[in-house]
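Researcher: I'm preparing a figure for a lab meeting and need a structural model of a single chain. I don't have an experimental structure, so a prediction will have to do for now. The sequence is pasted below. Please return the structure as C-alpha cells so I can convert it later.
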Amino acid sequence: MTGTVIFDPLIPWPALLAVAALALTGVTLALLRGLSGWALRGLAALILVAALSGPVYQVEDRAPLTDIVLMIEDQSASQALSDRADQTIQTADELAAEIEIRDNTELRRIRVGDGDGDEGTQIMAALNAALAEEPRARIAGIILVSDGIVHDVDQAPDLPAPMHLLQTGRTGDWDRRLIVRNAPAFAIIDEPITLTLRIEDSGAAPAGAGSAPLEISVDGSEPERFNIPIGVDVELPVTLPHGGRNVIQFTVPKAEGELTDRNNTALIQMNGVRDRLRVLLVSGEPHPGGRTWRNLLKSDSSVDLVHFTILRPPEKQDGVPVDELSLIAFPTRELFLEKINDFDLIIFDRYKRRGILPAIYLDNVTNYINDGGAVLIAAGPDFATADSIFRSPLAPVLPAQPTARVIEERFVPMVTETGDRHPVTSDLGESDDWGAWLRQIDVSHRSGELLMTGIEDRPLLVLDRVGEGRVALLASDHAWLWSRGFEGGGPQLELLRRLAHWMMKEPELEEEALWAEANGQSMRIIRQTLSEEVGAVTVTRPNGETLEIELEEVSPGRFEALYFGPEIGLYRLQEGDQSAVIGLGPAAPKEFERTIATDEVLSPILASLRGGAIRVEEGLPVIRNVRLGRPAAGRGWIGLTPRDAYETRDVTQAGLLPPWLVLLMTGGFLLAGWLREGRR
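Model: Understood. Here is the structure written out cell by cell.
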C-alpha cells in the first residue's frame, strides 16, 4: 500500500492562479492599510484556494514485478569454430543457474542462428524482437554470449539497461583468408583480365610465414599452383577459355592451426563474351536475299562484317575498259589464305564457281572448317548447276548433295521432330502462321541434323559438325520473303540470328548441353538434348559426396530439375558425356569473413550504458546490482540494474477538504477578522 496526495482542481489552473493572485492582492492591501484582521482574512483566502485546487489523498494497492534479464546465445556458423560452441553452452548454462536463484529476477534465453541467405549473424534483429515482447521498464540487463562478430549493428536499439558481452574464443586463435577483388561479371574470351588477390592472416598468426601456396582451377580442371606473398595485393592476369559461364576457383590450402578453411576459397563466376564476331559474307551475285543477310549482320554492333559481292563475273563482257571501272580488286588471297582463321563465320550466299576463287582457296576453307571454323551455305539455283560450290573441294564437308533440280513451287517451311528439340529452331512459333517461300533447291540429306523441310518433306535446313567446326546448308534463297511480310511473313530474323550464333558456337544454342542456373543455394539443372530420354544427373557436392537426380522433360529436348545445395561451394554435374560446374552461394560466407573473436564491433553499443566485455576463457563473471548510469562492468564482474517495477491492482481516493469543512473554516476566519477589526 502506498499513499500520495494529488490535486484535481475544480477550475482550470490559469483561473485558479488568477483567484490566488486576487486573494494575495487583497491581503496585501489589508496589510498596507493596517487592518488588524489581515492575517485571518489571508487564512480564509488560503483555505478557499486550497479547496479549489481539489486535494485528494490517493492510495494504491501495488504488487511488485520481477526484473527480466535477456540472455542471447549466438549459435551462428562462426560459433562452431574451435570449441566456441562448448564455451557458449557451458557459459550460458552456468550463468542461467546463477540468475535464476536471484530474488525477484526472471531469465529469457534467446538463441540466434545464421540469418537467411548470407546475411550473417543477426543478433540485433533478435534483440529488437525480444524487447518488443517485454516491458522495457522491467529489463534489468542484457547478456550476449557470442564471439562478437555481429553483422547488423546498424539495427541496434536504444537499450533500456546495460548490455554485456561474454566473448567466446581463445586469445591464441588465428586464421588465414583469401580475398579476390574487382572480379567482373563479364570478360572477353582469350583476352587477359587482371584480378587483385590478397591473402591475409589475422589473430595470433605464427611468425615467419611470408608466403602461401595458391591453387587456381577453371571449370573444375586440374589446378595450377603458385606461391604468393601474405598481406600484399597481388595482380593476377586471368584468361577465359570459352564463352558462357566460366567458374574460376582460387584456393589456399589450410595451414596447421588456423581456425577454418571456409574462407580459404574464392569462387568467381564470369561470363565469357566475344569482343567482336568477325564474319565474311561472300555473295555470288546481287539478289534480294543478299540485303537480308547484310542487314542482319550489320544490325549487331558486335559483328565485324566483310562483304564480298561478285558484281562483274568473268563471263560479263560489256566492253568497259578495266582501268575505267570504279571497283577495286578484292583481296581474295589475303582473306582465304592468310587471314581466313581470323573469321568466326563464313557465309556463301548463292555463290557458284566462276574461277574467282581458285580450288586451293576452297580447299583452305575445308581445312578452316576441320580446324574449328564455321561455314553457312545459303543455296540458290546455282547450287544445282554444274558450277555448284558442291562440285569443289568443299563437297566432303557439306551435309547435303544437290540433285540438279530446282523446284519453283509455293511451300511453307516445316520444323521436323529433331528441329522441335534443337535450340536453333525450337520455339519459333506455329508454322500455320508463317508465310510461304517460292523456291527450293532439291538436295539429298547425307549427314548432320535435319531441322526443317520444305516441299514433300525435302531437306531445307541441315546442320552438321565436321571435325572441330560446323557447317549449315539452307536449301532456299527465299528466306527474305519473311522479312518482307509476304503472306504474313515469319520468324526470319530470329531463325537466321540463331543459325549464325549456333555456327559461332554460342553456348546457349548447343543442342547437347548440361548447365545449371543458381539462385542462392538452389540451382535449376538443365539438360538440352536431341534425344527423347536422358539419364539421371550425378551431382558431386563440395565435400565429395554424390547423389543422382532425375530430370523431367519440360519442353521438347529440354529436361530440368530443382536442387537445393546444403553446402556453399563448388558443385559438379555429370550426365553421360556432358559435364558442368556451378558455385552455390559465396565461396566464403559472411560468417567467415572475420573469424577472430572481438569486442570491437559491439563496443559502441556496450558503452552507451557503461556495459562491458569479458572473455569467458578467463572464467564466469560475478553478477552485481548497480544503479542505472553507474559503471555496470569491471574486472571479473557484470552488473544488473534492479528496476523495482510494480503492478497497480487497486486505487482509492479520498478528498482532503470536504465542502462543509471549507465553508465552516472560511466563514469562521472571515467572521473572526471582522470582529477583530470592529473592536479596534
